[in-house]
Write a structure and sequence with these properties.
By secondary structure, the chain is of the alpha/beta class. The protein has one domain (5-183, 259-398): Alpha-Beta Barrel (TIM Barrel). It is 38% helix and 13% strand. The protein has 14 helices and 13 strands. The strands form three sheets. A nine-stranded parallel sheet has the order 11-10-9-8-5-2-1-13-12. It has a two-stranded antiparallel ribbon with strand order 3-4. The longest helix has 27 residues, at 250-276. The radius of gyration is 21 Å and the shape is globular.
């Protein structure tokens, strides 16, 4: 397999600039793949080279394709983006043009990170320990959410045009998200930050009851632990063992249930994709290196258990979004030890501020991860200045991926 060297972008880039202009950019950067979002959350995006718009607010939770007949009857129907009234034609044209240039076409989707559904259907949003609905993320414990995910990925796989599907955010998101005007004005230790993000929605509580876990006791312990920390009194943060011992040991069982909820959805999603396109490459974006609590064995605080996920997919795309070079080197080393040679790794490089200010900064990121890389992806064409494409080409000439891509 050729090393995948990909550029993240959005349908509005293709619609506004034209497919050929976007593919010209891919070739200018010396890349061989595009990762185009097909289901997305929300944001406010400044677009420095877009000829049509300078600032864009994507429709929250929109689909960028025409879904199947299930969409009309589903209890959680995502909106279909109005950027075009011919999504079938959009994808057919982009696929043909990419294929003619030897550029792989990859579908990229943040899944449970979905402010559109979370806002329209707060009954399936994550509920924090105090019962607040966290509208930008939906909970994988809900049957309707799981069904929605499987229907969307089945539709995408059946399109038959993608070389790869990149799954992002089949997870429980952390407390800090960068949501609209997000303000956290007090210091939070890594453990309290994590505990404050835990979901205790009705579906999670039902799963706990089915496993003979006292969910109310777990929630009460979490609330008390966080509330005590918020007084500002001196404390020693809990490690994973300390958290698992909470609520007379029930926290450990709760964490295991939480891992099963997330990880089983990842494996079911991968199985649905393979059932409809056996030749496609399945990748998962791994935010694990960014989590302050570190690994719990081979599991992250978002609920993803690597021992179960890795056999179900083909690639992990780890994120090392650090500006401090010492921290970056340490996280890369830890990750390499954690993963070993179990799976192809395609690190994601943020080729925009604050991680990338110049060509040397991008080259340093590539140098730090090249030893464990079977390829790279670069985030994000929509937001970068066009000279960044030259930085990418020059950086790859100096720091090519070193691990086999096969």
């Amino acid at each position: 397999m050729t090393h995948p060297l990909g550029l993240y972008l959005y349908p509005w880039d293709v619609i506004d600039e034209g497919a050929d202009a976007v593919l010209d950019a891919v070739e200018r950067a010396g890349l061989n793949a595009i990762y185009v979002t097909i289901w997305y959350h929300s944001g406010m995006f400044f677009l420095p080279h877009n000829p049509v718009r300078r600032t864009y607010f994507p429709q929250p939770g929109a689909l960028y394709f025409q879904p199947g007949a299930w969409h009309g009857d589903h209890p959680l129907p995502p909106p279909v983006s109005p950027l075009t009234d011919d999504w079938d034609g959009f994808w057919a044209d982009l696929s043909a043009r990419a294929r003619a240039r030897g550029v792989a076409l990859c579908a990229w989707m943040p899944v449970l990170h979905n402010s559109g559904i979370g806002t329209a259907h707060p009954e399936v949003a994550v509920r924090n320990p105090w019962g607040d609905a966290i509208c930008h993320t939906i909970c994988p414990a809900h049957d309707a959410v799981r069904d929605l995910v499987l229907r969307v990925v089945t539709d995408v796989a059946r399109m038959g045009i993608f070389d790869r599907i990149l799954l992002e955010s089949i997870e429980y998101l952390g407390l800090r998200h960068g949501h609209h005007h997000e303000v956290i004005g007090v210091p939070l230790d890594p453990d309290t930050d994590f505990l404050a993000s835990l979901c205790f929605c009705e579906a999670c509580m039902t799963r706990a009851t089915q496993a003979d876990v006292d969910g109310a006791a777990v929630r009460a312990w979490v609330r008390q632990t966080v509330d005590d920390a918020l007084t500002g009194a001196a404390r020693t943060p809990l490690d994973w063992a300390g958290i698992a011992a909470g609520a007379d040991g029930a926290m450990g069982v709760w964490l295991a249930l939480r891992q099963d909820t997330v990880t089983s959805l990842v494996t079911e999603t991968a199985a649905a994709i393979r059932a409809n396109d056996p030749a496609i490459t399945i990748a998962a974006l791994d935010f694990g290196p960014l989590y302050a609590m570190g690994a719990d064995g081979r599991a992250w605080q978002n609920g993803n258990n690597l021992d179960r996920i890795i056999p179900a997919i083909d690639e992990l795309h780890p994120t090392f979004y650090f500006t401090d070079e010492t921290v970056l080197a340490a996280r890369v080393a830890d990750y390499a030890c954690l993963i070993g040679d179990d799976i192809r790794l395609v690190p994601a490089i943020r080729a925009i501020l604050p991680q990338t200010a110049n060509a040397d900064g991008l080259a340093r990121q590539l140098s730090a991860v090249a030893g464990l890389a079977s390829g790279f992806t670069f985030y994000n064409y929509s937001f970068m200045a066009l000279p960044t494409l030259d930085w990418i080409r020059d950086g790859l000439a100096r720091h090519a991926p070193e691990r086999t891509a096969s």
